[in-house]
Amino acid sequence: MKICTFAAAYIGSYEVSLKIFEISAKRGIKEIDYIRSRIELGRDAFFKGNIGYEMVEALCNILVDYKKIMDSYKVDDYEVYAASVLRDAENAIFIMDQIRIRTGLSVTILSNSEHRFLSYKSIATREEFEKMIQKGAAFVDAGGSGMQMTIFSKGEVVTTQHLGLGTMKLRERLEKKSTNLKQYEAQIEELVDKELEVFKSLYMENVKIKYLIISGDYVTDMVRMIDKKQEEHTVETEKMLVFLKKFSNRSVEEIEEELNLPYESDALLIPYMMILKCMARGMGAERIWAPGANVIDGIAVDYAQKKQLLKINHDFDADVLSAAKMLSERYLSYWPHLEALEQMSTLIFDTMKKVHGLGKRERLLLQVAAILHDCGKYISFANAVHCSYDIIMESEIIGLSHIEREIVANTVLYKTFALPSYDVLAEKLDHESYLIVAKLSAILQVSNAMDRSHKQKFKNVKAAIKGKELVITIETEGDAVLEKALFDTKTAYFENIFSMKPVIKEKRVYS
Amino acid sequence: MEKEIDFTKPEYYENRELSWLKFEHRILNEARDKNIPLLERLKFISITSSNLDEFFMVRVASLKDMVHANYKKRDIAGMTALEQLEEINKKTKELVEQQYHTYNRSLVPLMQANHIRIVDSFEELSGEQGTFVDQYFMENVYPVLTPMAVDASRPFPLIRNKSLNIAALLKKKEDDIEFATVQVPSVLPRMVQIPGKNEEEKCFILLEQVIEKNIDKLFLNYEVLCAYPYRVMRNADLSFDEDEAADLLKEIQKQLKMRQWGEVIRLEVEHDIDKKLLNILKAELKVANQDVFKINGPIDLTFLMKMYGLEGCEHLRNKPYIPQRVPEITPGENIFETIKKGDILLRHPYQTFDPVVDFIRQAATDPQVLAIKQTLYRVSGNSPIIASLALAAENGKQVSVLVELKARFDEENNIVWAKKLEQAGCHVIYGLVGLKTHSKIALVVRKEEAGIRRYVHLGTGNYNDSTAKLYTDCGIFTCNEAIGEDATAVFNMLSGYSEPPSWNKLALAPIWLRSKFEKLIRREMKHAKAGRPAHIIAKMNSLCDEGIIKTLYEASAAGVKIELIVRGICSLKVGIPGVSENIQVRSIVGNFLEHSRIFYFLNDGEEELYMGSADWMPRNLDRRVEILFPVLDEKLQKKVKHILDVELSDTLKAHILQQDGSYEKVDKRGKVLISSQQTFCEEAIREAVLPEMEGTGRVFIPAEPIE
Predict the structure, then answer these.
(1) pLDDT tens track for B35-51
(2) Strand, helix or coil at A503?
(3) Both A137 and A186 in a single domain?
(4) Which of B266, B268, B302, B299 is nearest to B50 (CA)?
(5) Domain ends where: B505, B533, B557?
(6) Are A71 and B499 within 8 A, CB to CB?
(7) In this structure, is residue B241 part of a structural domain?
(8) Highest mean pLDDT range out of B149-153, B404-408, B703-707?
(9) Which chain A residues touch B515 with a CB distance below 8 Å?
(10) Does B583 map to a domain?
(11) Interface touch A33/B492, C-beta < 8 Å
């Protein structure tokens, strides 16, 4: 049995953690060691804008030790990730350099969407998860800098939104402004409740959820205390609320004592418990599930998936597509056209495989671009394309990284506008992404031209490469003059990129 | 009514110091036992002597501190520090009296009958012996003596803690009487062998007598009026005893000036010391009357330990017991493969400590081993474990060692080998601030075909191959995954990383242990209240934690049967109506020092057994890192339960705590004579020769008393 020993480290806003995993096809992902060091980098990063040298020094010392631990396990590979805490620090580039020089470890900074996707991966691979999202669920990923709310209905992603309600940010914002504990708690409650109200009216109007899935170690402990059946990790919401009520207006020390928590005097405990309380009360879930997994487990799942070390059952691509569809519905896009476009563009993409050299992931991005290309019309007909670009860039699509979102948005943009030279886009896209945008937007443009009237006139479309031509064979009942005329004007860009000319061959059918 | 009982009433508790003194009496009892060979009895006398020294230096000193700090808080038995000191003084004097009574009346005559003589007064020497002694004095003793006289220009010298000295009164023709003192050199052996009256006789003289005989040679031109030995015990411990409450430490820190550094807390003198001489000593050393101990015999009997090893007297000692092979472990075979077959119980000193040493030794050179982590508390000098750890580090393994520097009286020793380990490349952790690491755990991480596997040794005793021959301890080898995970978490915690969100199988003090014990006791209480049988057996060294005792009282009142095997201090009282009628306490004092901690809970038939490093003392539950581990394997559970059963049926070495607080030996009439330690020795010998019975599992049948 081939076993891969993998180390995942995560630099969070109040904790740096390391897990050692063994990954094998037979036994899946097995946690071997879990080491956590408390260091509140977020205090510097979020409120001063950069991380001071004492903190950097402390961080490096921790990572030096972590490197030793990794070495002692003779790990085959490792990943060190950081999210908002380094994203928000202006001196991140120097910190990463220091870390590399002192420890030899290279740190990857995650965008919010990547970070959240990893957290999501850590729970989505659990068996219980599929059942829960069928019945409706909200996944709350509460962190130091913010929280991510992802809503599922009938097994599909409804939306994922980032709310600026991190435990550490709440503490720093409110603790000093409150005269006492009671006021402090009331302020957090008010703020969270208000945000939650808005969120629900915008995204959950017709959605009912049964499960509230919530990340964090403390909640796992609490669930275990409330319900002794440890395997399940779920508890009735009502019971949780009764349990939480006991702790209102109690000091951190008292709560820790009661919960039998380590004597660390964790000042983030109160905001965390208040968030938990608001979520339990406000989301209307019957049960709460505390899987006890976090982003670091997601890193392992992601790694295992990337390296094809094991088969992951959950279809993450389906999440991306359903999130995109939900988004397009939200902006009232004309669905038959989108469907036709998605089909057409993937058909061309698949036919051109050898020519464009792109893979599965890019095919998914093309689909997303097709689904979302029209959403800007909701805002402005005249300026639809730019609005689409903005909507895509401002909406989180679970499973897409920031750069992938950029690719999708630019594909939509340059389906209509002429693609400028690389230099112009260099700030947004790296070289590889630029090429992807070019290829995808060319395909999308040609595909779009074929359904210009949004009437889906073409049936049984087939495509094949013949010599230097991409031959698209269509069956049509009605008049396809508009499409054909347009098509001819849209092929230049395609030719330019693929050195191949698309041509339409019409087969008239009469019913 | 049950609810009306206040289980915290002081009269329900015994003061720990006074209980400890009772334990000393039990040891002394061994010295008085005529069934025990002579040299063994001398050894017990010596043990009481050195124990008493430690008791004074640590506990009495601490109480004196309290008095100086005007600390008024009462202990669980409702006594103030001053009251305790008075009572201790009284009881200690009784103890010392009995100690010397035993020595003078029983052991000295017995020694003579066996042709061993200790001359404690030089006047008894024959002419030939006298010449020998004088010559020995001039050649060996005289050069290292520093006599010090006291007069107007020479102040009273500093008398070193625990040192034996000779005080003398001198007179220079017609002048006033002068005082002088000389330390009996600690570098020379206390017992000097001198020619016997005949071939057969082994004769010794005590060093102070050698000096006394020749004292005039130290003070030429003076007439020596008299000379007597004396010994002082000082409050010289720079740190406060960890057993005291934190609020006391604060109190004392506030009043640091109040503390009398180096204050003499005990002065031992010969019973017939010259009155004038004694008065000078008392005045100069600022000793109160009650702190003067008049000794009827040689001062400081710890020297008798040397007598124990006397050559040619094998018949006066117990036949030495050789720790036996652990049947599951074949020496020379790969120990990890052996552990993989199933958990293994080790019982020291009945079984050899070698597998534990071997565990680390093999790990050091095993190519599959990635890391070794271990806690070390009190380690023998020249420990093979330390050598193996150093070798492992040199072999590129990750070696983390937690060294507890705070182990009492061992600090210096610990620092030396901690440095040695660091030089070899080990990661040495020096314990957690404010917490002594008392847990005994060793973890070996191995990268095997099937992935990482962790091998763990958990014990009740220190990783000390010397004491493992004297202390009765238990240990377990396991590669149970859940325990392995916990073991890793323990070391992460000790390295200063955050504690794990939860533990699988282990319970740790100071964070989880107290509540774990209380939960376990309360669970029995629940069973009892529901009319189900409920039973607790607990074996430990000391029991003086108020919270635990109170919970035990509640359990007893609820009908839980509680059997305690407590070697030393026991602040719990038995037989109080409505409080502790269901509690029995016994103390086993034998040839080996009872040291293991075992806890049994009937749990309505789902029996649970735990072992660990912690006593039921506040310091173990609140201020130390301790581990309580479950015995999971059914075969092992039986073996461990068997230990308890045999000890509960011990009729020879067990002392039963009575309602009046005294300890009585078991009434042997009509009972099978059982010495648990002897039984375990015999069992170990039997098992070691028996081939391992495969699959069947050995079942022990506890000896039943004849009805």
Answers:
(1) 899 999 999 999 999 99
(2) strand
(3) yes
(4) B302
(5) B505
(6) no
(7) no
(8) B149-153
(9) 260
(10) yes
(11) yes
* Record: contact A34-B489, CB cut-off 8 A: yes
ipTM over 0.85: no
CA distance B152 to B168: 17
pLDDT band for position B677 (50/70/90)? very high
Confidence of residue B258 (pLDDT cuts 50, 70, 90): very low
Enclosing domain of residue A232: 127-292
Closest CA to B58 of B298, B262, B239, B188: B239
Distance from CA of B338 to the nearest CA of A (A): 23
pLDDT band at B608 (very low <50, low <70, confident <90, very high): very high
Structural domain contains residue A300? no
Closest partner residue to B451 (CB to CB) among A30, A33, A68 is A30
- pLDDT at residue B574 above 90? yes
Q: How far is CA A177 from the centre of its chain?
A: 34
Residues B362, B408 within the same domain? yes
Q: Are strands B583-588 and B654-657 parallel, antiparallel or unpaired?
A: antiparallel
B660 with B613, same domain?
Answer: yes
A216 and A275 fall within a common domain: yes
Assess whether pLDDT exceeds 70 at residue B572.
yes
Question: pLDDT digit string (tens) for B482-522?
Answer: 999 999 998 988 888 877 777 888 887 777 788 889 999 99
CB contact under 8 A, B445 and A264: no
CATH value at residue B191:
3.30.1840.10
CATH number at residue B476: 3.30.870.10
Cα separation, A268 vs A272, in Å, equals: 6
Candidates B370, B449, B498; nearest CB to A262? B498
Same domain? For B599 and B539 the reply is yes
Query: Structurally, how many domains does chain B consist of?
Result: 3
A248, A380: one domain: no
Contact (CB, 8 A) for A465 and A355: yes
Tokens of B492: 């992460």
Domain enclosing residue B361, as ranges = 335-505
Reduce the secondary structure of B270-327 to three states and give it as a string. ECCCCHHHHHHHHHHHCCCHHHEEEECCCCCHHHHHHHHCCCCCHHHCCCCCCCECCC
Residue in this structure with the two tokens 């990284």, named with its chain if needed: A401
- CB proximity B519 to A under 8 Å: no
Q: Provide the percentage of residues in chain B whose pLDDT is more than 90.
A: 60
Residue at a domain's end among A60, A81, A111: A111
Per the listing, tokens 């021959």 go with: B469
Domain limit, last residue, from B489, B505, B521: B505
The answer on A406 and A469 residing in a single domain is yes
Give the percent of chain A with pLDDT over 70.
95
Domain annotation covers residue B372:
yes
Same domain, A101 and A230: no
Is the CB of residue B367 less than 8 Å away from at least one CB of chain A? no
Q: How far apart are CA B190 and CA B302, in angstroms?
A: 10
Given A56, A81, A111, which residue is the final one in a domain? A111
- Taking any CB pair shorter than 8 Å as contact, residues of chain A touching chain B are 1, 3, 5, 15, 20, 22, 24, 27, 30, 32-38, 65, 68-69, 71-74, 217, 220-221, 224, 260, 262-264, 292
Residue of chain A whose alpha carbon sits nearest to that of B492: A35
The predicted model gives B388-393 an average pLDDT of 92
User: Which residue ranges in chain A fall short of pLDDT 50?
Assistant: 263
B515 contacts A221? CB cut-off 8 A: no
Whether the CB of B500 is below 8 Å from some CB of chain A: the reply is yes
For chain A, the domain total comes to: 3
From B555's Cα to the closest Cα of chain A, the distance in A is 23
Q: Are residues A22 and B451, on separate chains, in Cβ contact within 8 Å?
A: yes
Give yes or no: residues B201 and B342 share one domain.
no
Contact A35 B497 (CB under 8 A): yes
Instruction: Please give the order of strands across the beta sheet that includes B202-206.
Output: B116-119, B202-206, B191-194
Chain B residues with CB-CB distance to A10 below 8 A: none
**B438 in active site:** yes
